[in-house]
């Protein structure tokens, strides 16, 4: 598929996830075969004020391409300026966040709150599209709440204003992350838009990816929580589609080796202190289903150094007879 002029080869995208889908994790997901990755959301205001943390969120590795930097905000001009910075940092695509449900985001009129004002969505897409040469995309939800499901209207306005693809997460803001995502809304958008539609919500295995594509006709599937502690999901889906075969479940050894690789990359990019603290939650996700998982998670929660994490992984292997 193509998003504007950018070709995406394959079927899978890693979802933008604040505090999770950082450079190290995105790189690892690419290694496992993700076709496309999107950065954590970056504040347009933070970019405007050259905030250091914000700048670091936009750093991209060579192997991530093609990739998007996702920006959030509600002021068209500020969004347009920040998009230019995202492109300078190497983004092949600029994605606009219109789906975040977090109170601190929506209370400022950003994220999914934008969907309450379709015209403003159009103005933002228009301003951003006119400010950069790369394709601009949007990520939306079904709507604000069950009484105001307007994903198609918002997507159509975004398309008219220059969006080159739409990602749709089949839940309203009110739904947050439950109940199950509504895939019919993905189909509705696919049937009514001329630009590619990326389907998102509740994909945790290759069969889910196949079902979503069959049911909705979407051009790409985007995976969020299904990749946590499980970047191998991209290899699993690729094997299913390309070779028509089911990969065996990732072994304890494979999971531990992915965890350590991610930790090493994170240390390289963020320094040990920050990286290992942030890796604690990832370690807990990787340890899910291990013998002794509770104790391993507990110890991971106290890790301060890469060496401690390495020792913990060695222990996990012994506890799991590998
Ligand atoms: C920890 C976490 C952080 C997220 N951060 C973002 C974000 O920065 N931008 C965004 O558009 N969506 C964000 N999302 C939503 C995901 O991109 C995705 O739409 C949602 O998790 C549904 O997909 P899934 O069922 O595959 O997880 C986040 C989700 C999670 C769980």
Q: Gyration radius, to the nearest Å? A: 19 Å
What value does the average pLDDT take?
97
- Contiguous low-pLDDT stretches (5 residues minimum) are none
Largest β-sheet summary = 8 strands, parallel, barrel
Order of helices and strands: EEEHEHHEHEHHEHEHEHEHHHHH
- CATH fold type of the largest domain: TIM Barrel
Counted by DSSP, the helix tally is 14
Bound molecules: flavin mononucleotide
**What's the name of the CATH homologous superfamily of the largest domain?**
Aldolase class I
Shape: globular
Number of strands: 10
Using the coordinates above, name the CATH class of the largest domain.
Alpha Beta
Strand order of the largest sheet: 3-4-5-6-7-8-9-10
Give the class from helix and strand content and strand pairing: alpha/beta
How many independent structural domains? 2
CATH architecture of the largest domain: Alpha-Beta Barrel
Compute the separation of the termini in Å. 41 Å
Structure description:
Strands 3-4-5-6-7-8-9-10 form an eight-stranded parallel barrel, surrounded by seven helices. Strands 1-2 form a two-stranded antiparallel sheet. The radius of gyration is 19 Å and the shape is globular. α9 (about 205-215) links the parallel β9 (about 195-200) and β10. It has two domains: about 1-240, Aldolase class I (TIM Barrel); about 250-320, Non-ribosomal Peptide Synthetase Peptidyl Carrier Protein, Chain A. α9 (about 205-215) packs across α10, α11 (about 250-270) packs antiparallel against α12 (about 270-285) and α12 packs antiparallel against α13 (about 295-300). The protein contains 14 helices and ten strands. The protein starts with a strand and ends with a helix. Helices cover about 45% and strands about 15% of the residues. By secondary structure, the protein is an alpha/beta fold. Bound molecules: flavin mononucleotide.
């Amino acid at each position: 598929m193509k998003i504007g002029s950018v070709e995406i080869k394959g079927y899978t995208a890693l979802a933008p996830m604040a505090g999770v889908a950082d450079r190290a994790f995105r790189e690892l997901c690419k290694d496992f075969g993700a076709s496309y990755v999107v950065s954590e959301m970056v504040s347009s205001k933070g970019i405007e004020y050259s905030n250091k943390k914000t700048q670091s969120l936009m750093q991209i590795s060579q192997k991530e391409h093609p990739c998007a930097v996702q920006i959030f905000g509600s002021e068209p001009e500020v969004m347009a300026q920040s998009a230019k910075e995202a492109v300078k940092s190497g983004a092949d695509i600029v994605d606009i966040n219109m789906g975040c449900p977090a109170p601190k985001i929506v209370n400022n009129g950003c994220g999914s709150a934008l969907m309450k004002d379709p015209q403003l969505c159009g103005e933002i897409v228009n301003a951003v599209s006119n400010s950069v040469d790369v394709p601009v995309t949007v990520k939306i939800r079904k709507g604000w709440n069950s009484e105001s499901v307007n994903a198609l209207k918002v997507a159509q306005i975004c398309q008219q204003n220059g969006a080159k693809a739409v990602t749709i997460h089949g839940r309203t803001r009110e739904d947050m992350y439950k109940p199950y995502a509504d895939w019919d809304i993905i189909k509705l958008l696919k049937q009514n838009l001329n630009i590619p539609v990326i389907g998102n919500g509740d994909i945790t295995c290759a069969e889910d990816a196949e079902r979503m594509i069959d049911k909705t006709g979407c051009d790409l599937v985007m995976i969020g929580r299904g990749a946590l502690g499980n970047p191998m999901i991209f290899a699993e889906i690729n094997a299913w589609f390309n070779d028509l075969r089911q990969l065996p479940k990732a072994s304890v050894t494979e999971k531990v080796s992915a965890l350590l690789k991610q930790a090493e990359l994170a240390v390289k990019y963020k320094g040990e202190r920050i990286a290992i603290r942030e890796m604690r939650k990832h370690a807990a996700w990787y340890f899910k289903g291990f013998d002794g998982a509770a104790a391993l998670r507990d110890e991971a929660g106290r890790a301060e150094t890469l060496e401690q994490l390495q020792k913990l992984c060695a222990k996990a292997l012994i506890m799991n007879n590998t």
